[in-house]
Amino acid sequence: MLILAFDTATDVATSALVWDGEVLGELSSRPATVLEDVDALLRRGGVRDSQLEGLVVGTGPGSFTGLRMGLATARTLAFSLDIGLAGVSTLDALAAGAPDATPVIDARRREVFALVDDGPVVLAPAELPVHPGRTYVGDGAVCYREVLEEAGGVVPPDDSELHVPRARFHVLLARDFGLPELVQPMYLRVPDVDRTRA
After folding, report:
1. Which of its termini does the chain have fewer beta carbons within 10 Å around, N or C?
2. What are the C-alpha distances in Å from 155 to residues 21, 61, 68, 151?
3. At residue 63, does pLDDT exceed 80?
4. d(CA 142, CA 104)
5. For position 193, what pLDDT does the model report?
6. What is the pLDDT of residues 4-17, one digit of tens each?
7. Which residues contact 24 (CB under 8 A, 6 or more apart)?
8. Are 73 and 169 in contact (CB under 8 A)?
9. How far are the Cα atoms of 2, 18, 70, 80, 155 from residue 52, in angstroms, in the given order?
């Protein structure tokens, strides 16, 4: 099955073209250039968009703008190509890239998104349960390295690949390819614009 996947939930967007488990190409850039990356992957892979059989998108949590942009792009592509769309949590993709590590995404406003007891949460970095000797990955782990390391956690070097939610892992985790409108973002908190209105 030929699958295109991308995630725009963090500051580093990733995209991948995967055919029956083999990665044909993978790119990372900024969320705003995801369509350019998709086009480049298809060209490099010698694939026409009409050959795609499924699409996977990262559902967050992460940047509100990045999530909306990624989901809108994924839904439009899936609808126009008449292929199924699957959503995969960005935290789950990070965890798949670093087995036995805890994924931590910078949520801004001095908070992080993380997987705690296999469930997604948003909390202050100091409230994150840190297990001594355990590895923590993601841009939130990099941002709050000092807090995590003081509590006994291990954070790989800033430039480690383990901090990037690679799209190839989204493909591995994708289960149900269905109607584009059924894939929903995982926000975990009210967007800033809604808080301002209230």
Report:
1. C
2. 29, 20, 29, 11
3. yes
4. 9
5. 53
6. 999 999 999 999 99
7. 17, 18, 41, 44, 45, 47
8. no
9. 5, 10, 18, 12, 37
Cβ–Cβ under 8 Å, residues 66 and 90: no
Cα–Cα dist 190/194, whole Å: 6
Asked whether the beta carbons of 65 and 180 are under 8 A apart, the reply is: no
Give the number of other Cβ atoms within 10 Å of residue 144's Cβ: 24
With tokens 């926000």, the residue in question is 187
Q: Which one is the CATH code of 2-90+165-197: 3.30.200.20, 3.30.420.40, 3.40.640.10, 2.30.42.10?
A: 3.30.420.40
> Which tens digit of pLDDT belongs to each residue from 106-117?
999 999 999 998
Count of C-beta atoms within a 10 Å radius of residue 120 = 18
